[in-house]
Structure formats: C-alpha cells, structure tokens
Amino acid sequence: SRRDIRRVLRSGATFTTPIGRVAQLAGSAGRGGRLLLVIGRSVAKKSTDRNRLKRRLDGAVLRLAGRQPLPADTIVMVSPQAASIPRRSVEPMVRDLLNRLGAPRHAARR
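RESULT FIELD:
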C-alpha cells in the first residue's frame, strides 16, 4: 500500500548499489518482507524498455532468492545507469544486493 511505501522511504535504512538506491525497513512480525522495484521515466523513456528491465531484475531475484521472503520490506529505486547494465552482469549485481539485504540463499536453476 502507499502507506507502507511511505513508511519504508521515511523510516528505513538507505544505501546505494550499482542498481540504484535502496530503502529497507524490517517487516511486520509473522510476515516476510516484500520487494518493490521503482523504475521511473528517467531510467528509460519507453515503457517497454522499463518493463524489460523490471522483468530482468525480477527474474534474477527469483532465480537467486527463490520464493523465500526477504527479511525486510525493500524498495529499490533503479538508477538510469542500470538500463545499460549488460544482461550477464545483472545476476551478479542482484546477488550482491540480496547479500546486503540478508536474503536467504536459493540454489540458482540452470
């Protein structure tokens, strides 16, 4: 919900990665964290390019973390430089992001 997003952005810890700026706030007891990717028009003018980048990032998160919940509610505000990241470099960058978040490990499917 919008209220949850505002709460994470206002009260969460923030740090920067090559993918973009990250805000993280521990989730409610009994519920795992959620991930929100924010890809604005400054990243790519065309919605098809933004959606392609979102699918690429979502796919890497799913392959690396599986369906395990994240330890905290997390918002990633994707930077314009992320649009030019080569496809083969996305997964290592997402792996580093998940490591910083403390996400559970999942064996990658090949």
